[in-house]
Amino acid sequence: MVDTQELIEALHYIKKFKDQVFIIKFGGEILSDEKILETIALDLVLLHDVGIHQIVMHGAGNLISSEMKRLGLEPKFIRGERVTDRETLSLVTGCLHYVNNKIVGKINKNAAIAVGLAGGLFEARRKREELGYVGDITAVNSGIILELIEKGHLPVVMPIGIDKNGNSLNINADVAAGELARELNAMKMIILTHVEGVLDENGKLISKLNIAEAKNLLKRKVVTGGMIPKLESGIRAISKGVDRVHIVKAGEHAILGELLTEEGTGTMITRK
């Protein structure tokens, strides 16, 4: 039996979100669970059908690390960002192409709307020498994205930047999602990951954070590893005009659960 109150609540949010731009960031670990990936793909199609413009940004972290280990290479990270030499960059690019095709295929299984995008969207420069071929975004060529969503497509973007000499650079997908959200004046950025959200010192979920509180967590090093670029990206996106950032565990219909209910399921970051 349909819960009338839940339906009214969902319809309220659908009306509010219509014609808005959402950035949805997939963590690479989502791809290891076919059932979850398929339900999330269905969520995207349903939200597309009610008039919400979505852009998917994805990484390929788990797959890259697995392939590196298979080849006898040791994955290394600095503050949540992968150290990327030339050999690793080639492997990263190949894994991202594989992931991109897989996500596009899962979405298009439900409706032929997804379009994969590789290099050319992000202009970048080398970030720090110790990180190798890792990029900082200097410009976002958003025209192609806007054109695609205006025509009813759902762009699926891989985080590869191009420097002024035409060289590829690996960009952290959380960072790339934040820059894209800022550039497109997105209403929301949703980061799907393998943990419940942002946790406090005792491992308890923090359901809501403002910018000052998020910065304090980083300063006190409560947040570590891969959550650092997620939180930093969220702070920057909110500071530059994005209304809300959600960090959510990737479960079945995780996006609908976060967006169309009052309580949500993960951590929501706001300006105030």
Would you kindly provide a written description of the structure presented here, covering whatever features stand out?
With 272 residues, the chain is α/β, with parallel strands linked by helices. The protein has a single domain (4-270), classed as Acetylglutamate kinase-like (Carbamate kinase, 3-Layer(aba) Sandwich). The chain is 40% helix and 22% strand. The protein is built from 9 helices and 14 strands. It has helices spanning 4-17, 34-49, 61-70, 86-108, 143-150, 173-183, 211-219, 227-239, 254-259; strands at residues 21-26, 53-58, 77-78, 81-82, 114-117, 122-126, 135-140, 154-157, 160-162, 168-170, 188-193, 208-210, 244-249, 267-270. Helix 3 (61-70) packs across helix 4 (86-108). The radius of gyration is 18 Å and the shape is globular.
Topology:
Layout: H1 4-17, E1 21-26, H2 34-49, E2 53-58, H3 61-70, E3 77-78, E4 81-82, H4 86-108, E5 114-117, E6 122-126, E7 135-140, H5 143-150, E8 154-157, E9 160-162, E10 168-170, H6 173-183, E11 188-193, E12 208-210, H7 211-219, H8 227-239, E13 244-249, H9 254-259, E14 267-270
Parallel strand pairs: 1-2, 1-11, 2-8, 5-8, 6-9, 11-13, 12-14
Antiparallel strand pairs: 3-4, 6-7, 9-10, 13-14
